[in-house]
Protein 1
Amino acid sequence: MAVAESTEAEAQTERAPAKRPNRLFRNLNAKIASIPMVATALLIFVGCTAWTIYHSFTKSRLLPAPDKWVGLDQYERLWNTRRWLVSIENLAIYGICSLILSLVIGFTLAALLDRKIRGEAVFRTIFLYPFALSFIVTGLVWQWILNPQFGIQGVVQRWGWESFTFDPLNNADIVIYGILIAGIWQGSGFIMIIMLAGLRGIDEDIWKATRVEGIPAWKTYILVIIPMMRPIFVTALVLIASGIIKVYDLVVAQTSGGPGIASEVPAKYVIEKMFQAQNLGQGFAASTMMLLSVLIVLIPWAYLEFGGKRRD
Amino acid sequence: MTDATATYTGPHGPKPKRRLSPTNIMLYGTLFVVAVYYLLPLYVMIVTSLKGMPEIRLGNVFAPPVEVTFEPWVKAWAEACTGINCDGLSRGFWNSVQILVPSVILSIAVASVNGYALANWKFKGSEVFFTILIFGAFIPYQVMIYPIVILLREAGEGISAVTGTNFRLMGSIWGLVIVHTIFGMPILTLLFRNYFTSVPEELFKAARVDGAGFWGIYFRIMLPMSLPIFVVAIILQVTGIWNDFLFGVIYTKPDTYPMTVQLNNIVNSVQGVKEYNVNMAATLLTGLVPLVIYFVSGKLFVRGIAAGAVKG
């Protein structure tokens, strides 16, 4: 920050004696260099988002129809579609479970790794490698492991427990948990890394003090360490939440939304309405609902995180 | 909190007392069991891809191969079918390479210059655009996907009309390259901005006194100094773009589909007998590029995702 401000001041003093140049041409090279950023910010992030929101109030079918205004019709139809309701329900279950599990697993693993163990680097490498893999690869591998005939269910049955059933991918009631297993496998290592960075940032003196007081380690974690790591938890929370809303490829690869429509998610609903069902209006309305849910998470966070700083 | 990994000074937890205390057994036991869960899918992928189909039908997913065969790998690479095309996953691989190289170069070139302008050459409004860019990273892609289709189509037609060629952005790899550049911009710009801000002010001032301008300082001072951050950015982009599915499926056509899309089409195709060994060989092949990058780059990969996670 300091660098940039002083440069600006410097640039101004440098130019002061000369004839006052056009404001627009001051620092011209930096402005030219920033054209891609400005274009992305305005045209894509603001422009395209506004375009989609506007068109969600129109009767667009195969082509966008900006002049066929229908008000909230698309939203009314959306919330009366069973498939959308199933999608929302799945997202809620997946979201809550993956939020809790990611935080608990991520923190527990980080805390275990932080206890001066041997081979920390090896464990860390093992826990994080799934994060390097795509959701497609993740989904396909778990589809195979959960295969009822040859996978976990088949193995246990062949061991002699004939009545054992564990077939989440073909059972509409629990299919979302089958996807959850894969999602947690892929993403929890990432949360562990963030938590570990947080734990490493905690002063050694805290541990010394609690040891002198004779407080057991687990109590120190719950009463002292976790409250101290609040910002890290908030960051992790925002990251997990913004990842949950994007869940798409994992479902496509693992179940294709099946059995039936039991594992549909909102992101998939949008893509299918836009590019397969030729029902653009529904796609726009559904994607606007996705945006709305992101804002519900993001605005309070942004307010807490940056609200104070902005004022001064 | 600009660089989470900078705090990796060593374990901070309470010191374990005896080597074989019950706590230690619990600790290593837990870590070991969890490590098995994380490694299981990789193991299953490898053993399945080395078995023949008869052996898969008789055994279970966890059994090691009795007779090792590399035929599934050959078949996955050169013969696996998507629809009527039976030239294997190799086509997807080369498509992905063709998408990857220009996308990585363009996105990093654009973002590094952006970050440099934001750190050292601030102008009025630059911070506003940067804020929009960062918040834009949280907008679900589904909201912007359709308007971008229109923009790419119009821009491609415009270029065709001006140059008198039959150039297309929509459906070609160049459209996808632009999309990757756009959506990689927030995180990469943040990465570079934070890095350039930390470069000592004196260096920049000295260069200014010597009469170096915007591009002079960028190419002769900043670029040579920031090679590590470029490596981090390359790792981040290569894994991210290689693993992308959503943009690939929307902005390219079947003959230019990237590897992830083709993989999903091969494995989840409904026609023919399921060849699980070929499927797993194909899955492993697709995951190989990011896995190799992950295991080779080690700490730099962690640094990349941590920089992406913790906003500055």
Note: Residues 1-18 of chain A have pLDDT under 50 and may be disordered.
Protein 2
Amino acid sequence: MSGTLIRTASPVAVRAVPRSAWRPRLGILTRYASPFLLVLFWQAACSVGLLSTRLVASPAQIVATGWALTRDGTLPTNLAVSLARAGFGLGIAFVAGVSLALVSGLSRLGEDIVDAPLQILRTLPALALVPLFILWFGIGETPKIALVALGSSFPIYLNLHKGIRSIDPKLLEMARTLGLSRARTIRDVILPGALPDLLVGLRFAVGISWLMLVVAEQVNADSGIGHMMMDAEDFLRTDIILVGLVIYGLLGLASDQIVRFLENTLLSWRPSHRIGRST
Amino acid sequence: MNTVVQVTQEVPAPARDDAAVVVHGLTRRFGDGPAVLDRLDLAIAPGEFVALLGHSGSGKSTLLRTLAGLDPVTEGSVVRPREVSVVFQESRLLPWKRVWQNTVLGQDGADRRDRAVAVLEEVGLGHRVDAWPLTLSGGEAQRAALARALVREPAFLMLDEPFAALDALTRLKMQRLVSDLWIRHRCAVLLVTHDVDEALLLADRAVVLERGRIRTDVPIPMDRPRRHADPRFEHLRGILLESLGVHDG
């Protein structure tokens, strides 16, 4: 047994160099081949009647429905509503998260006042507040935006706070020997040093904002992608539900790309961001 | 021009009134442990280059941190110029600012960039003015740190083992650069180092610290540039190694 191992080992080692040259391209092909084949199987199963279209619509049907919903204006209208909710919620979360992190990151007193209650609150699942929010804010836009804002504030706060607290003390010492004022130290040393962590927080926050929105729009809403999907459920329109899912997926993907773009632009000083953009 | 950093105890005026830096009776201890600095007296004349040698834990770093204003003076007194600069073992450049912005960090004025470029050219870094610090080599980063120290035109420059992390060849180049810069700027210099040869190549005076006190304080009366082959070099090397407790030379 061990003899065969030794014999096969050497030719593989010799071939390793030319192999690594064409492997990346093949890697991309195999990466996309698998999902593509799955969609193909799905379509085939629906076409020959293996999968009931009442349970799940075929890919072709989803594309057709998506196009129809776009043409009659249903999809654009609901998408705009959802985007506005996520955008407002995220905007509030960003302002609140950054302000709180600055207060608790830059002063000990601020940390004592702000950090402890936030650490307790963050252990609560934000979605559990839905009933309370409906009681407080009714069923209009406010509870949905508030839910998005609440859920996505935490990752922004936590990451920026960590970033501010973990600035290299040697750089702060250097700033002292250069005679930098407190305000200048914050502007030139602390904030840029914490920016990578803030962007990590932002990426999490964007992901959470979509999650919050899905729930908020399915519990009570008369517009939005979630509402469109709930409506479709009543009429057994699996194709519309799946269009909604695809839209959510695309939104998540697009927002992640935006944050990546922000990272590449704002953190261009990091060598890793120039070499490996795909990481 | 000189400012008293802090005096907590009434002390007699030091003998050398013309000195740039005067340390008198400086004592520092952490907790209940033994004194890291023990009633230390040290004076550095304007434009004088002093090398500070000693084992780890002899109090070198504590003395430098006190002179740099990073540690408080609790016992004794320290008088030093207002304009001081420190170069640490690590360059401590801000990775998110370009080299020239790092150089003039905290400086004001519309001619900031011009001043940065001038001093970067002086340290041989004129071609990396717009580079990001993380793309610099170790030697280049230390050159940038030197430029950042010099742009402030310090009357007193502290160098805390600035070449310890560099390879041998780069270190030689950097020692020559520091020597040239000092001849041109003529500020008082305190160089903390482990390297006896470095002290002998660069300094006017070598001070050996042991358990918070000065054990040896010898002038180095050799012309520059200095050569290892000089018999006085060998002689002084023997003295310094002896007081550092190394007897094999």
Note: The mean pLDDT of chain A is 86.
Protein 3
Amino acid sequence: MTAQRQTGEPVLVVKDVSLSFGGVRALSNVSFDVREHEIRAIIGPNGAGKSSMLNVINGVYHPQVGTVTYRGVSRHRVNPHDAAAQGIARTFQNIALFKGMTVLDNIMTGRNLKTRTSFVEQAIWIGRARREELEQRRKVEEVIDFLEIQHVRKTPVGRLPYGLQKRVELARALAAEPSLLLLDEPMAGMNIEEKQDMCRFILDVNEQFGTTIVLIEHDMGVVMDLSDRVVVLDYGKMLADGTPDEVRANQAVIDAYLGVKH
Amino acid sequence: MLYREAGQFRTSYAEDQQIFPIRQDRIAITAFLLVAFIAVPLVANEYWLKAILIPFLIFSLAALGLNILTGYAGQLSLGTAGFMAVGAFAAYNFELRLEWMPILLSWILGGLAAALVGILFGLPSLRIKGFYLAVATLAAQFFIVWALTKFPWFSNYSSSGVITAGKIEILGYVFDSPIEKYLLVLTIVVLMALAAKNMVRSETGRAWMAVRDMDVAAEVVGIRMMHTKLLAFAVSSFYCGVAGALYAYAYIGTVEPEGFNLDLSFRILFMIIIGGVGSILGSFLGAAFIILFPIFLNAYADPFAHALGIDLPPGMTSNLELMIFGALIIFFLAVEPHGLARLWQIAKEKLRLWPFPH
């Protein structure tokens, strides 16, 4: 079953992006777009350049060639802060939570760009700073309710099991109220129930908040069920781009995944 | 039985976000402050105030400053004493050269001067981390002491480089006796500790901790690395600077640049290691421990050794002090890196559940 979603105009356009580290070409001439409200999957074998692609989108890596255009703003070199300010949030393949902080504080950091008060006001803690902190807390609690992690909100994240940590990381990304959410293997290492929960959350985020989602995933069942369109990368090159059904029938994709007879 | 939060329901986020959400903690801290402000001045003698309580408060403030930088923002610094020296000498010069300058303002300006120097020496932190940054702050430590010695202008051309802090006068009232100085220092330290707590429990502190725990993720959620790190250096150095000014004015009276040497930086670093890295309370516990322990040892090591039938050679207690400190620091680094504050927290958690193990 493929989700039937009303998708809009392209909001993210990746054009001719090439990225290399020394002699290693991580991406070469990758171009694709992501439409408003779409769930877009990037798949490919290990080392295909999927994570590098996400890192290019939110400015952790700078491609040597090519541009990334998000909502009309085209950039060749972007830093992660600008990407976040534009409404791009993400999760990481290997959980990147702040280990020494509680779940609540971790999710609160997701709202740092919404903070208006200065550190002096926060130090004095009266009036505006206090009101703002409570307002942030209220917003964060909505995310906590949404992802059903109320019971662990005061727990240091380091003590949580893996599946919950993944969920807290999603919560931190959602707290920023992003317009584009990049998910790097949100279901890696999860059991079937945790995967089902995560699928439900991703669909709910897309539906309730209208968030555009780009996700990397290895579980083909999940990818085929969730996504509207799929980009397939292999050795940094685009193999295919299309709906799940088209991609599934594409000979190059089958070759890349299953191998070819020589 | 006493430390139970059963029946205390927090029904709003404001109640949940208090510094002390548990009623027993609020009662304890109120009682503690009452003792500090009222009972201590009534019963403490001059020796206790001058030699123990005032330095304890001042070192707590410096440790708090270092803890903001090292414990919360994760930037190791060995320049604490240097920043204290900037605060002391800047306050002295403001006071000396601008006659009208109120003393409190000169202390604040001393802190701000230290903050500026802190930002300057914090710049390397944008490129380097850990040990290499520690070496860069070590350069700050040596450079500041060197500059204050080299340019006699800072010490008003006094022949030995020693400055003598003037009297403390606020709105015509002279803070002269140890009790008055103690109360003044206590007020400043309490207010600054409160401000520090407020910072670390709001966005500023979360950004510091995020940078400490995982800088790449911090950048991706939109935290500005440069701003956050330099702010940590500035705030930390401000605290150290004010502590330095108080050290000169309310404690020692006459200071020289060499008084703010690397030894002092290490002492303050040991305070936060023993007290608790990344804890406001830990700064106070660590300072208390480092100040009180040698005094305790001096008083009781000999009688204790006698009781065991050993005669300590003269001067042994000071060596014992070094040995015990060394052992303790290794112990804390290996066993409980979060120090006394963490032990206190564990005790409280156990008490909440007592007598049930879970």
Note: The radius of gyration of chain B is 21 Å.
